[in-house]
C-alpha cells in the first residue's frame, strides 16, 4: 500500500494539475489525520484547510472507512464545501433547513456517501442523531471553525458544546480534525481541555501579505457614509471591486445600504431574519447574487463571516468597530482569498463602544440567574414552557432563549413537547460557573481595550493582530498596511461631494411606529384599542439631528429650532389625519420636557394640547425592563387618563421623546381609546431600538 504522503500527493496532482504542490503544513496535517491523531489546524484564511479534510477523507474512504462527518456553521460554507469536494470526486451531502424535502432520501444514503455536512445545531436533533448512529465505520469527524467550541473563542456558540458530547460517543480510534484561523493560546488550551491533551496542533503564520489595512480616525456617521460612497465610486481600485461592509446592527446595515443604493451602487443588506414580502427567507438569494457578481456590495452584520468563500472579494470596510480584534481578523479574511491585493478599511465612531459593551453584557450568563431559572423549572413537576419561565424574570426573549440554550447544551435541562425540565443527573456548579463567567467578562473587556489600542496604534497593523492571536509569525511588519507604507490609501477630502447628501440623508431617516396587535400574554388587542400607524422623526440617535435631540433631552428642554423642526414634520401628518389634540406621555423624571414641546407645536399648528394622561407613580425606566410582560405592566401600573373629555371623539397625536419596545405607546393609546378617543397616532422624536 502506498504511503499516506504518496496517496495524498497523487490525489492533489490528479485534481489540480501536475504542477500542484501542498502548502507548508498541509501534507503533515493530512498524515496526522489519516493516522487517527486528534488534530487542530490553525492557518490563515485561504490557506486551504478544506483540502486537508477532503483529501484525508478520500484516503480513508479508499481504505474502507465510512463517511466523514463535517460540522460546519454556515449554510453558504456548506455549498462551497460541496463544490470543493466534487472536484476531488467525493460525493458529499448536507442536511439543512433549505433541503427539508430531501431529508429522507439523504438519510437513506448516509452509508453510501463520502461525507455528511451538518450544522452544530443539528446535533440537538434526536432524529438526526438516531440516523447517524446507524452509519457504520465512521472514522473521521471534522469541526470547522473549531474556536467556536471554546468559551474563550471570539464567536463561541453554545451548540458547539454538543460536538464535544457527540465525540465522546464515538470510539477512541476515530480521527478528529478541528480547523480555524482564529485561535489564540487560551482558546487552544480550552480545546485541548475538551478534546484531550493528545491534540496535535499545526499552527501557521497569520500575517496576510496581500491585505492592506487602514484605520481612520473617529468620524461621524455622515463622514463615514460620504467616505465610503466616494471610495466606491471614484477610487481607482475600490470602484472596480466587489466587497463587504460590516455594521454592528441590522438597522445600520439597512441605513448604509439604502444610502449607497441612492448613489447608484449595486448593494444589498444582509443579516439574520431577512424575508421577502411573502415571508420567505432571502439570505440565500442575496448570497447568490453577490457570488455571481450581480450585487457588487453586501452590507452585513457578523452573519456573513465564518467560512464564507468567494475568492475575488477586493475589499472589506468596517462602518463600525468589530467586537474584537480576533473577529476583525476573521472578517477581513473574506478579502483576497485568491491571493490578489485587497484593502481593509476600519471606520469607527462614538456609538461603537456602547453597542459592543451591550453585546458583552448580553452574552453574560450570570450564574445566579442560571441557578434561579433552574430553580423555577425544577419547582414545576410538569415542566414549563419558555413564556411561563419568562414571566418570572426581567429578561427579554432573546436573552432567555440564549440562557436556556446554554443550560440545554450543557445538559442541565432537557425538553419534551416544548417544555423544559431539570436534568436529574447533571448538577449545576454555581461557584465554578461564576468564576468562569467573571474571567470571560474580564477577557471580553480586555479585548475591547486591545481593540481601542489597535485603532490608535502607530506600528504595523497586521503584526498587532498576529500578536493578539499568539501567532508564530517572525516577520515584524506586513509591509503593506497604511503605517508600513506611511500613507493613507483613502482620505476624506473637504470637498467630498457626498458630505452634504449624507447629512441630509441621515437627518431625514424618519421612521414609522407600527401597532402591537397582541398583549404580552399573547391575547389579541381589541381592534378598538389599537393605535394607528405612527411616526418617528429619526431612527438614528447618532445622526446629526438625533444627537441634537438626545442632547437637548438630557438638558431637559427642547430648543426653538427643534420645535420648528418637529412642527414642520408633523404639519402634513396632522392635516392628513384630521388630528385635533396633542397629548404627551407624562414623565415624573422630566415633567416639563414633552408638555412644553407639545404645547408649542400645538400652538404653531392651531390645535389643542391636553395633559390627558397622568403618571400616577414613578415606575422603572422602560429601558431597564427587559421583556414584554415587564414593560407592559410597568406602564399599565403607573398611567391613567385624567382628562377624558379632552380626547372623547377626537383624533389624538400621542407624543413622546423616545420609542423602543412600543409598550408605552401601546398601553397609553389603549387607555385613550378606551376613554373615547376616535383615533390615536403615536409620535416620538427618536427610535432608539438597535435591531
TrEMBL record:
Residue intervals of the Helicase C-terminal domain: 227-378
Coiled-coil annotated spans: none
Keyword ATP-binding: yes
One Pfam family cited in the UniProt record for this chain: Helicase_C
Source domain of life: Bacteria
A Gene Ontology cellular-component term: replisome
Family annotation (InterPro entries): DEAD/DEAH_box_helicase_dom, DNA_helicase_ATP-dep_RecQ, Helicase_ATP-bd, Helicase_C-like, P-loop_NTPase, PRTase-like, PRTase_dom
E.C. no: 5.6.2.4
CDD domains cross-referenced by the UniProt entry: PRTases_typeI
Catalytic activity, reaction form: Couples ATP hydrolysis with the unwinding of duplex DNA by translocating in the 3'-5' direction
Record carries keyword RNA-binding: no
GO molecular function, one term: DNA binding
GO biological process: DNA recombination; DNA repair
Protein's name in the database: DNA 3'-5' helicase
Domain Helicase ATP-binding per the UniProt entry, residue ranges: 30-201
Family membership noted in the UniProt record: Belongs to the helicase family. RecQ subfamily.
Keywords: ATP-binding, DNA-binding, Helicase, Hydrolase, Isomerase, Nucleotide-binding
Amino acid at each position: 500500500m502506498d504511503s499516506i504522503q504518496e496517496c495524498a500527493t497523487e490525489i492533489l496532482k490528479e485534481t489540480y494539475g501536475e504542477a500542484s504542490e501542498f502548502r507548508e503544513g498541509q501534507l503533515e496535517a493530512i498524515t496526522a489525520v489519516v493516522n487517527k491523531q486528534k488534530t487542530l489546524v490553525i492557518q490563515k484564511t485561504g490557506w486551504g484547510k478544506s483540502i486537508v479534510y477532503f483529501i484525508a477523507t478520500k484516503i480513508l474512504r479508499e481504505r474502507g472507512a465510512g463517511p466523514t462527518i463535517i460540522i460546519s456553521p454556515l449554510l453558504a460554507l456548506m455549498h462551497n464545501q460541496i463544490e470543493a469536494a466534487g472536484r476531488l470526486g467525493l460525493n458529499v451531502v448536507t442536511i439543512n433547513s433549505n433541503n427539508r424535502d430531501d431529508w429522507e432520501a439523504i438519510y437513506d444514503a448516509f452509508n453510501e456517501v463520502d461525507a455528511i455536512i451538518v450544522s452544530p445545531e443539528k446535533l440537538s436533533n434526536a432524529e438526526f442523531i438516531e440516523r447517524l448512529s446507524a452509519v457504520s465505520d465512521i472514522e473521521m469527524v471534522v469541526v470547522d471553525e473549531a474556536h467556536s467550541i471554546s468559551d474563550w473563542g471570539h464567536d463561541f456558540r453554545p451548540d458547539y458544546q454538543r460536538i464535544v458530547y457527540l465525540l465522546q460517543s464515538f470510539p477512541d480510534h476515530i480521527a478528529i480534525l478541528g480547523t480555524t484561523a482564529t485561535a489564540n493560546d487560551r482558546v487552544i488550551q480550552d480545546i485541548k481541555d475538551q478534546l484531550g491533551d493528545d491534540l496535535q496542533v499545526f499552527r501557521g503564520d497569520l500575517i496576510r501579505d496581500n491585505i492592506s489595512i487602514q484605520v481612520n480616525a473617529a468620524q461621524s456617521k455622515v463622514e463615514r457614509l460620504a467616505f465610503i460612497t466616494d471610495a466606491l465610486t471614484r477610487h481607482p481600485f475600490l470602484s472596480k471591486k466587489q466587497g463587504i461592509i460590516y455594521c454592528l446592527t441590522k438597522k445600520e446595515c439597512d441605513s448604509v445600504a439604502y444610502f449607497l443604493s441612492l448613489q447608484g451602487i449595486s448593494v444589498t443588506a444582509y443579516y439574520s431574519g431577512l424575508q421577502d414580502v411573502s415571508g420567505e427567507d432571502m439570505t440565500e438569494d442575496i448570497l447568490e447574487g453577490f457570488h455571481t457578481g450581480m450585487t457588487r456590495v453586501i452590507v452585513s452584520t457578523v452573519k456573513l463571516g465564518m467560512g464564507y468563500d468567494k475568492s475575488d472579494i477586493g475589499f472589506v470596510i468596517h462602518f463600525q468597530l468589530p467586537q474584537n480584534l480576533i473577529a476583525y481578523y476573521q472578517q477581513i479574511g473574506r478579502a483576497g482569498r485568491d491571493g490578489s491585493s485587497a484593502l481593509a478599511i476600519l471606520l469607527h465612531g462614538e456609538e461603537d463602544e456602547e453597542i459592543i459593551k451591550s453585546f458583552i453584557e448580553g452574552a453574560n450568563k450570570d450564574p445566579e440567574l442560571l441557578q434561579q431559572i433552574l430553580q423555577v423549572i425544577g419547582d414545576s413537576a410538569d415542566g414549563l414552557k419558555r413564556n411561563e419561565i419568562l414571566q418570572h424574570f426581567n429578561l427579554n426573549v432573546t436573552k432567555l432563549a440564549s440562557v436556556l440554550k446554554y443550560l440545554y447544551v450543557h445538559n442541565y435541562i432537557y425538553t419534551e413537547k416544548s417544555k423544559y425540565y431539570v436534568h436529574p443527573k447533571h448538577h449545576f456548579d454555581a461557584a465554578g460557573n461564576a468564576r468562569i463567567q467573571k474571567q470571560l467578562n474580564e477577557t471580553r473587556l480586555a479585548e475591547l481595550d486591545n481593540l481601542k489600542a489597535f485603532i490608535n496604534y502607530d506600528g504595523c497593523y497586521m503584526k498587532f493582530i498576529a500578536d493578539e492571536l499568539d501567532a508564530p509569525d517572525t516577520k515584524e511588519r506586513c509591509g503593506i498596511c497604511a503605517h508600513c507604507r506611511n500613507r493613507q490609501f483613502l482620505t476624506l477630502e473637504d470637498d467630498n461631494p457626498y458630505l452634504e447628501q449624507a447629512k441630509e440623508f441621515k437627518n431625514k431617516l424618519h421612521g414609522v411606529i407600527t401597532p402591537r396587535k397582541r398583549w404580552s400574554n399573547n391575547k389579541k388587542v381589541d381592534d378598538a384599542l389599537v393605535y394607528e400607524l405612527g411616526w418617528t422623526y429619526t431612527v438614528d440617535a447618532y445622526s446629526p439631528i438625533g444627537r441634537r435631540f438626545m442632547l437637548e433631552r438630557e438638558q431637559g428642554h427642547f430648543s426653538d429650532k427643534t420645535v420648528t423642526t418637529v412642527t414642520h414634520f408633523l404639519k402634513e401628518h396632522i392635516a392628513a389625519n384630521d388630528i385635533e389634540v396633542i397629548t404627551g406621555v407624562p414623565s415624573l423624571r422630566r415633567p416639563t420636557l414633552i408638555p412644553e414641546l407639545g404645547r408649542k407645536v400645538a400652538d404653531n399648528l392651531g390645535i389643542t394640547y391636553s395633559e390627558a394622561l397622568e403618571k400616577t407613580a414613578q415606575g422603572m425606566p422602560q429601558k431597564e425592563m427587559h421583556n414584554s410582560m415587564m414593560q407592559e405592566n410597568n406602564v399599565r401600573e403607573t398611567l391613567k387618563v385624567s382628562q377624558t373629555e379632552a380626547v372623547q371623539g377626537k383624533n389624538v397625536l400621542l407624543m413622546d421623546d423616545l420609542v423602543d419596545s412600543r409598550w408605552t405607546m401601546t398601553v397609553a393609546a389603549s387607555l385613550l381609546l378606551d376613554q373615547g378617543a376616535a383615533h390615536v397616532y403615536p409620535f416620538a422624536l427618536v427610535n432608539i431600538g438597535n435591531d
